[in-house]
Here is the input.
Amino acid sequence: MRIGYYPGCSLHATSREFDESLRATAVALDVELAEIDDWSCCGATSGHATSHLLSVALPARNLALAEEQGMQEVLAPCAACYNRLASASHSLREDAGLEIKIKEILARPFANTVRVRNVMELYRSLIPQITEKSAGRLKGMKVACYYGCLLVRPPGVLAFDDAEQPTSMDEICRATGATSVDWNLKVECCGGAFSLSRTASVIRLGRAILEDARKAGAEALIVACPMCHSNLDFRQSAMTQSGETPMPVLFLSELVGMGLGLSARDMGMKRHFVNTGPIEKRATETAAQVAAEAAAKAAKAAETAAKATAQAGTAPAGKGVA
Amino acid sequence: MARIGVFVCHCGENIGRTVDCARVANELRDLPGVAHSVDYKYMCSDPGQSIVKQAIREKNLDGVIVAACSPHMHEKTFRRAVASEGLNPFLAEMANIREHCSWIHEDREKATDKAIEVCRSIVEKVKHNVPLETIRIPVTKRALVIGAGIAGIQAALDIADGGVEVVVVEKDPSIGGHMSQLSETFPTLDCSQCILTPRMVELYQHPNVKLITYAEVEEVSGYIGNFKVKIRQKARSVDADKCNGCGACAKACPNKKVPSEFDTGLGTRTAIYVPFPQAVPNIPVIDRAACALFRGRAKGLKKEACAKCREACSREAIDYDQQDTFIMQDIGAIVVATGYQLYSIGKDQPAGLTGYGEYGYGTIPDVIDGMQFERLASASGPTGGRIVRPSDGKEPKRIVFLQCIGSRDPAKGIEYCSKICCMYVAKHTMLYKHKVHDGQATVFYMDIRAAGKGYEEFTRRAIEEDGARYIRGRVSRLYRDGEVIKVQAFDTLSGEPILMDADMVVLATAMRPQPGIQLLAQTLSASYDQHGFFNEAHPKLRPVETNTAGIFLAGACQSPRDIPDSVAMASATAAKVLGMFSKDQLEREPTVARVDVSLCAGCFHCERVCPYGAITHLEIRDRKGNLVKVVADVNPGVCQGCGTCQATCPSKSVELSGFTDEQIYAAINALVL
Here is the structure.
């Protein structure tokens, strides 16, 4: 499977571990990520806060490049990039006047044929492979899936999952053997781009999210957005009161990678602010336990099989035991 | 040579402002076949009509054209006038120079030219008009009412009181509908059951009413005045003639844990049950899906797994082998009163809607809907009228109501306003305050729509006297935090986000038509809108009729309605039905399709395209009785004169009287040649 890849600025900078873990799992799952040549900024929040035209033109340029380079689908792991690319594509489909204007600005052929995907859609399509390759390696690990605001909204544009009660990330986590806990704040706001301008709000919102996940018994919070990750991981020390165990915040790709047995080092997990050592250790333990259980089961099966053969040996002749 | 009279109307300023009516009359006068042509200020007025009548008399006219408004407006008026002079009314036609000309143009010169063209075209058509005779069809004076909620009951009683037989079909074991589930009603707070149950009994005992409960309309054929209706009487498993309603069977039933539909799942019932104590008829029914005996049979058990109800019955009324039966009825008019269902968020989502996962309905036990609150507040409800939390039975001290759940939300729900929720939420806050004196009710609303007699005063009372707190804004999320429900919202008046604790949350969910209503509409050949509500023939002038002759509407099957509206509509429908039955024969416009049997090849394309099912098969036999061919025939009682068959017929053997190809071509030729 080959898919276009639009890493965006975050995956080359603050969220390099998202990029590295995603590439590592892609190799393990036989997916080729073809990075769009000469990609540029999606505009992000600044783009659409400045001008609607700009906020469509910037993503459209990248979609046009992808089209030129023969891609039918483009994976945009960053939630903001994904939202911008998908929204731009949607606006162009809905608004013929805008489409004409954008084509003029781009000054290159553009038919708006590329479909924009996020990591949840990619992994969801690979659930059978993940289930098979991970063999339940993370069995018993409890995680809280945090979708945030951008990945599933607005519902008219991003229709791959329910906007208020999404489940696709939970399904992917379960494929690794992990348990996704039932909790309340899976689509709440993390404060987004206000991390610098209104830090206090980000801390208040982040604390509520972490507290609820902890209350639900989660050992780790799973995210698929660089902004959520930086708010909840980088600012977590300010959100946690003394005595509380820190909550590792993992990218979905990191959890899938752990499920597939990839090493934390290959996935760049050392870059987290909250120490991921304990959760890595926990993954090793669950893997060992699952392996031991599997071995015991295999041994038992072998024993039963041997017994059956032995009995078959003593069975009367002429019953077809060749 | 034809002798046609042309009468050009100024319609006051409406036409006269843009069209030079005198010039129109002058130019038309010179047209071959036009014997008389005049203009007048108001042709539809009494003196105007006299001008037409006088001209027919004096000029011996054989055709009349009134150049005025749309035929929808005054065709009937002028045809009546023409008929009074002994001329066949179908020799008179309207030339529409108002809606099609003066109202939409500004240039007087050009508009006048166009008006002349329009009139010329109609003159040519009228030259080919032939006299047509009104169709008379017999009428069976018996009405069918589908659904016996308050609308159906009211319609049936009014028709029956008018001295006409009524057959009432109700799909549930008891009549009464949603109104029987309500606690008190707005804006007077009178007890719903107290005003409804006497009507139910009245219906049951009315000599003109034949009540068929636990039954559904299966097939409808025929046409206005002459419907044949097949009704499926579902198997009750109880012989209604023997049963005396003592209730011993329900007492004996071992399965007492079936969620009660009547109590919206908040209470339980037995497998053999009467939905509620005041049910009419008071005859139980066995819920075969919940009954041990039938479940055993389904599994293939030879022995009867349970027969406790039969043992308990002293009248041998229990019949485990009862089958569905069919009842045929000849019916003249049908009233649809199938009512509504509440938008069931989280459970059976309407197709294409993704719903309201953020409210946790179905997962948080203390998030309930409006009907569930009614049952909690009702004296006959599962808690005996105590308002308590379904989760732990504690009295909620902080209760939050959310309005417009599903309604007025094109993004996630449906566009329309459900109309009743503003009022019943106000009522709920009052009922709550009257029972939980130290409790606080909070309402989140978009707008308060309290248009109706005493309605605004009622909502004000809820706020001012009973202390309900109204916050304008939407709730974005409900979630559990231990025992409380966190309500996350936004106050759009103060611009502040809100996070408040609630013990119980009530969702005022949207009103939707009953499931299966589309199928019923198709059975009746009646049309419905994109939401599944039945379409009325005209939103203002024919609100209780459908476009299918003989099918009438009452209550919430047509749009969301409260009790006063439903009852008013039911009485209006009854008046329509009685009016129809006041004649022994029904008169229909003769503008229906006719088949030329000598040309018809029997391909039946017309049958496939006819939206009203008016095409029948006619066997043509020779003198010896041998079948020559089978051709199409039009049932004039059903045909609505739409002309689709005429447009479809490959051999041109179907023609719409009054709109034949000859007439239409003549009209077109006048314009283009």
The interface with chain A takes residues 354-358, 411-412, 477, 479-481, 486 of chain B (CB under 8 Å). The first helix of chain B runs from residue 13 to 16. Chain B has a mean pLDDT of 94.
